[in-house]
Amino acid sequence: AHRYALAVGSPVFKTNFEDRWSAEKLKLTDSSKLLIPIANYTAEGFSEMLRYVYYGEVELSESNVMEIMYLSEQYDLPGLQVNCSQYLNEMLQANDVLHCLLNALEKGDEKLQRQCWEVICKKTADVVASDSFLNVTQQLLYNILRRNDLRIRELALFKAVDRWAEHQAGRQGLLIEADKVGHLKRRVLGDQAIRLIRFPLIPQQQFIDEVLTRDVLLKDEILDICKHFS
């Protein structure tokens, strides 16, 4: 009964049952049992796919949608692919796109990576204002700052980066004394992040009022930036 249900639900299962899987490969234990080897997928993800095959239902989440998408492609389940695509489209909003990008990077899904970057570049201000931005890795932060097509003013971008640094420093238990906050944030950011921010694009008075007061720049850096204002 199970073989029949799987064969009806998925052409791939049907083909495997009928043609390609020999008794030796499948390691038949008796005449009624057929062992299906599963690699590269979690038991939870595979079980969720089977639930769709049997009942036409699936519970998608940020943690399983990518795996179930790949399973739906491998086992030729177009209806499940549609469900996953719709869920991913909902995820590709400012609040969730960074999490989706991390999943795409982990899976090596270049198409989804491009889609995520399109959202990040078009909705940069909303993305960096989201809570998920505060938890991105330092390397992903650098990758964002390297982009030349971000739709955000440089001052707003700097403020978001400053918030990220303060959040990360707090997570690491580094924010102890108020007079050392700037130094600690700079330590978390690293020199590369500072170099990637285009400070000369910030109006001079805003630079004085909004950037210098955060104490993340070194004296030599301040002098170099001020040369662009003169």
Automatic annotation (TrEMBL):
Origin superkingdom: Eukaryota
Keyword terms of this UniProt record: Ubl conjugation pathway
Xref: InterPro entries: BACK, BTB/POZ_dom, SKP1/BTB/POZ_sf
PROSITE patterns from the UniProt entry: BTB (PS50097)
Protein's pathway: Protein modification; protein ubiquitination
Domain BTB: 1-62
GO biological process, one term: neurogenesis
GO cellular component, one term: cytosol
SUPFAM superfamilies: POZ domain
UniProt-listed Pfam families: BACK (PF07707), BTB (PF00651)
The name this protein goes by in its record: BTB domain-containing protein
Lineage: Eukaryota, Metazoa, Cnidaria, Anthozoa, Hexacorallia
